[in-house]
Amino acid sequence: HPIPLPQPLAAMALFASWRRGLSSIGSNVSSLAGGFLRPSAPRLAPKKAKAKAGAGAAGSAAPSGPAGSGQIFNIYAERADEEIKPDSWYPKWLWQLENPPKNYGELTMMFVHGVDIEEATLSDYQRFLRQHRKMVIKINNLRLKRSKRRPGLKIT
Fold first, then answer.
1. Long-range contacts for 105-114 (Cβ within 8 Å, ≥24 apart)?
2. Cα–chain-centroid distance for residue 139?
3. Contact (Cβ atoms closer than 8 angstroms) between residue 1 and residue 29
4. Integer angstrom CA distances of residue 118 from 48, 69, 101, 130
5. 8 has pLDDT over 60
6. Which of 11, 68, 82, 128 could be 77's S-S partner, Cβ–Cβ 3.0 to 4.6 Å?
7. Does pLDDT of 12 surpass 80?
């Protein structure tokens, strides 16, 4: 009488037999798991090489490989570095990336109250509209949530 395996081990045995390419799986699962449940040999870390006494200083060894391979950031060692072009060569939008975008408060002051409206751009206005719609949705959801808890509470 074979000893029945616990459910996870039986599934693992079935999977192992499937991986081995068995065409028919018999009812005796424990016989299929015979090779699968054997303990494996312990895996140890590779042994460290001992330093040779006559090797010399550690920094004296030159990097092996083509010229420039000792550089970390030059992944194309055989190619010359790219030259830096003047600022006028690059597109204008590239220099706008280092400026953080205006937040909702600044955009509200600009488009609702008119502060610095002369410096407004179309992208600023579109950003304001997106953020304003999002804020209106949040306020409406908050209003609906509170009205279910306390019907008499009015948020204006």
1. 107/131, 108/132
2. 32
3. no
4. 69, 53, 17, 21
5. no
6. 68
7. no
Please give the Cα distance from 35 to 29 (Å, whole number).
12
If we measure between CA atoms, which residue out of 14, 39, 38, 15 comes closest to residue 28?
14
Question: Which among 37, 41, 40 is positioned nearest to 17, based on CA atoms?
Answer: 37
CA–CA distance, 101 with 128 (Å, rounded to integer): 11
Query: What is the Cβ-side half-sphere exposure of residue 138, based on CA atoms within 13 angstroms?
Result: 6
Distance, C-alpha 153 to centroid of its chain: 44
> Residue 8 class from Cβ within 10 Å (0-12 exposed, 13-18 middle, 19+ buried)?
exposed
What pLDDT does residue 48 have? 74
Give me the pLDDT at residue 3, please. 58
